[in-house]
TrEMBL record:
Binding site for Zn(2+) 1: 137, 141, 147
Family: Belongs to the peptidase M54 family.
UniProt-listed PANTHER family: ARCHAEMETZINCIN, ARCHAEMETZINCIN-2
Active site: 138
Gene3D superfamilies recorded: Collagenase (Catalytic Domain)
Entry binding sites for Zn(2+) 2: 148, 153, 172, 175
GO MF annotation list: metallopeptidase activity; zinc ion binding
Gene from which this protein is expressed: amzA
Function as written in the Swiss-Prot or TrEMBL entry: Probable zinc metalloprotease whose natural substrate is unknown.
Cofactor note: Binds 2 Zn(2+) ions per subunit. One is catalytic, whereas the other seems to have a structural role.
InterPro entries according to UniProt: MetalloPept_cat_dom_sf (IPR024079), Pept_M54_archaemetzincn (IPR012962), Pept_M54_archaemetzncn_arc/bac (IPR012091)
Official protein name in the record: Archaemetzincin
Keywords recorded for this protein, A-Z: Hydrolase, Metal-binding, Metalloprotease, Protease, Zinc
Enzyme class: hydrolase
């Protein structure tokens, strides 16, 4: 069984370098739990058009999870993360960086507000670092972790890009212990 699937969900472009950087980091970490990582070919955002809100110009995040869950199930994987270039939201929130469901073992991460140019910053490795953190965060939720009070833990809630930039890429010792318990079951 494949462990973790990554799938680009594309409107314009999800940079291959970002997918590669995320895949390499996730593989390096989750190999400790016997999980590999496979990058799937990209799919079109059109498959999720029912989630588009014209007034907001954003996609409802939860629309992605059932479809991703079906793909995960069909391919016999332990988890799946969609990585998209569109802006996401949830009811009651202006935007979200990502969303996960431990029930469907699926997550979606948006690069839209992770891109440095969104904040007037220069392009560079910052997008890859932010993408790695958000994918690791959402995978933590997929595997049963809650938000962590430790601001350096990747499971700390990001209310803004400043929170994402401040936290690390890895789970704190407490979250690793919980993760080990969830994955060893």
């Amino acid at each position: 069984m494949t462990g973790i699937l990554l799938i680009p969900i594309v409107a314009r472009e999800v940079e291959k370098e970002v997918i590669t950087a995320v895949a390499n980091y996730v593989r390096q970490f989750y190999s400790k739990f016997g999980l590999g990582v496979t990058s799937l070919p990209k799919i079109s955002i059109n498959r999720f058009s029912t989630g588009y809100n014209e007034i907001r110009g954003q996609f409802l995040g939860r629309v992605f999870l059932p479809v991703l869950g079906i793909i995960r199930n069909e391919l016999g994987a332990k988890a799946i993360v969609g990585i998209t270039d569109v802006d996401l939201y949830e009811e009651g929130l202006n935007f979200i960086f990502g969303l996960a469901s431990p029930y469907s073992k699926a997550a979606i991460v948006s690069l839209y507000r992770l891109k440095p140019e969104f904040y007037g910053e220069r392009k560079g490795k910052l997008l890859m670092d932010r993408a790695i953190k958000e994918v690791m965060h959402e995978l933590g939720h997929v595997f049963g972790l809650e938000h962590c009070p430790n601001p350096k833990c990747v499971m700390h809630f990001s209310n803004s890009i400043l929170d994402t930039d401040f936290k690390g890429r890895d789970y704190c010792d407490n979250c690793i212990k919980k993760l080990r318990g969830y994955l060893d079951d």
